[in-house]
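Design a sequence for this backbone.
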């Protein structure tokens, strides 16, 4: 009985081994067959001979990965690029209440950009009723640099002819912590004096504020300023010019600004009306908006216009 029981177990073990080997062989054969079939289809596909019923079917794991990578790349290439731009406005906003940032031309400009499908963040760093001396300090131009202008004005007896003779006393309480160094600056200073009635000095001070931003490929240099000289600064920025209060020689002012800043200069002198009126501020915003588009700093989305 013991010998019969042992023999039975032995036979069953042999059968299990035989079945296992047969199963493994069958699976390996099937896998090899599939691999050969895939290679054959691939060659036929390259030669344009894939039968219609086979044309959609086969993708190995490797092929699937390639297809997924290609689809992701195509998706990235087709995705529209609509990167937001940052614009920093400085100078005069001409709002009736200088403390109301929602009523100046920078706020109106922001609305215009949004209405025309431009993704933009417009920062209002304007300081109404502040001359160029105060505007420079408001933009972090070094104090000793600004003081040098004040000392020169006093030495030259210009005090009586200036609208602003020193930095405003409320600088500290009015100051806005800067987060606009990498923004596109729109500098609109000069309306309230502070530069001794000299267009060359005004241009120099505009350049000093411009130098505090980082999107320019070179810095403004006062040595570049001659009677008809150019600043020659490339990069993204606008200098918005309004005839300063009390300035009588419009042609000279416009010529000097255009010579200094080239296409970056945008004149506001053709805008008519009261500077504190809503219509005037809308016209200023529209003029600057058109210049931003002209310079290629922002791209209007067609769907927004329809």
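Sequence:
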């Amino acid at each position: 009985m013991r010998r019969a029981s042992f023999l039975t177990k032995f036979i069953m073990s042999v059968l299990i081994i035989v079945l296992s080997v047969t199963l493994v062989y069958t699976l390996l054969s099937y896998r090899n067959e599939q691999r050969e079939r895939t290679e054959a289809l691939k060659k036929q596909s390259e030669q344009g001979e894939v039968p219609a019923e086979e044309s959609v079917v086969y993708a190995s794991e490797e092929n699937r990965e390639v297809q997924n990578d290609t689809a992701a790349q195509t998706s990235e290439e087709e995705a529209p690029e609509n990167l937001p731009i940052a614009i920093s406005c400085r100078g005069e906003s001409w709002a009736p209440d200088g403390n109301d940032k929602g009523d100046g031309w920078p706020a109106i400009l922001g609305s215009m950009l949004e209405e025309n499908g431009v993704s933009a963040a417009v920062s209002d760093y304007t300081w109404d009723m502040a001359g160029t001396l105060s505007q420079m300090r408001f933009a972090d131009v070094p104090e000793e640099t600004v003081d040098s202008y004040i000392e020169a004005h006093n030495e030259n007896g210009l005090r009586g002819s200036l609208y602003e003779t020193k930095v405003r006393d409320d600088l500290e309480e009015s100051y806005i912590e800067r987060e606009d160094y990498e923004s596109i600056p729109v500098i609109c200073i000069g309306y309230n004096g502070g530069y001794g009635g000299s267009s060359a000095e005004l241009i120099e001070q505009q350049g000093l504020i411009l130098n505090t931003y980082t999107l320019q490929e070179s810095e403004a240099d006062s040595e570049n300023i001659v009677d008809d000289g150019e600043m020659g600064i490339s990069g993204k920025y606008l200098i918005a010019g309004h005839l300063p209060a009390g300035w009588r020689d419009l042609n000279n002012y416009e010529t000097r600004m255009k010579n200094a800043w080239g296409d970056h200069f945008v004149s506001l002198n053709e805008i008519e009306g009261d500077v504190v009126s809503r219509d005037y501020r809308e016209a200023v915003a529209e003029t600057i908006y058109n210049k931003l588009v002209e310079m290629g700093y922002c791209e209007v989305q067609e769907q927004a216009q329809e």
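The chain has ten helices and five strands.
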